[in-house]
């Protein structure tokens, strides 16, 4: 078995509360990954008429969480975390390669790869995460896909996996609601109510991911994939994806 | 021949679909010219191969078929095609594969392509029709070497859409893994578990679509096919037909959605002809 350099045991044992404060920092809208520049194709479905209100946004995001990138990213995150925590470097590389290869369009590859690369860089410049640096080196010039980058940093810092996956999905949903507030547009309160309405779905998807394996990955967000492709040619664009 | 009847359900029991079929194509020197010829053929069980004569200059074709007439829970079929260096060939299916309601278990179909340097592979199976209550695990594993080229399509139709059948209980997982020189470059994972009509009713999933297809082109000049594909899509997209195309990392990825199988063909057929530069395999029009 190949062990990772700088495994978790060489990291400072985190104090109680480290999970909460680290996740809040790393998944904050102000963490320098440029999350606010990506809309996951939402900008196109707003233009095209599928999302025009808080209600239609909630329906769309609910499907993205349950049948699209939400669930798939969560499974990749969980698999990546466990591979990193258990020192399984080859398995971890496979998870990371699958995470990137699953992106079906130019802008989804950008959204996943650019955020992952920025996350790895920001972590390397601040908190440090040896397994993540090692993984980034192995995959270069390809980036570490974003959910896997978050997973490996979390594993290196011995954060709670349960809270990491829930926080990841919460941030994912909140970022897209923020994009919709700008794009539809929606009021701030409408946006927050959408986040509130999606919270049980976020929890359910997180719970499912914790007991899933990589074989369970997959979804049916076909129209969202097409939206991502169509967004490339959208006339007026605020977002990179 | 009498039809076997299940002791449990009293319903006619399908012949077990169990078997493996394999073809290989290689470049041969024939009378001073290099031409692709069949280099290997293997068939076992209900997985069979036909080799129709092809005269449109696109190289030989192999037609895979499942002589059991369908797939149900517990069945397992394997199809493999090997395109040796420099060869050009097309692989298709005789008819739509039918995945029937199962009493237990899931059907498994494993498809495998090996495409060597300089070879050009067209993987063009016809639709897979998934019936209510069906269970299927399908894989398409592709290994490309060097500058190998690929045009691949997989289409799924839920229920016999012309007859208004709805699929409200299904357990379907359809995965692609495409590697170039050992490195994973593309993956796809379709998963429909439960009420597929409900799942595909939303705006992020299918908006009521009951038929969908993915097309992948792997080639050094894949990006040059983007504009022709988008122009076709712009022309053919209509009520009940949607599609998108994107190019990245030496790939062209296309997704098509349609209300029914007939409308899916309206967009898939011209796209395949444009991307392969050839007419569709004859089996598609029989």
From TrEMBL, chain A:
Main location: cytoplasm
Tagged with keyword Cytoplasm: yes
Cellular compartments annotated: Cytoplasm
GO cellular component, one term: cytoplasm
Record's keyword terms, sorted: Chaperone, Cytoplasm, Nickel insertion
Top-rank lineage group of the source organism: Bacteria
InterPro entries referenced in this protein's UniProt entry, alphabetically: UreF, UreF_sf
Function: Required for maturation of urease via the functional incorporation of the urease nickel metallocenter.
Family, as annotated: Belongs to the UreF family.
Quaternary structure, from the entry: UreD, UreF and UreG form a complex that acts as a GTP-hydrolysis-dependent molecular chaperone, activating the urease apoprotein by helping to assemble the nickel containing metallocenter of UreC. The UreE protein probably delivers the nickel.
Protein name: Urease accessory protein UreF
Organism from which the protein derives: Pleomorphomonas diazotrophica
Species classification: Bacteria, Pseudomonadati, Pseudomonadota, Alphaproteobacteria, Hyphomicrobiales
Gene name, Swiss-Prot/TrEMBL: ureF
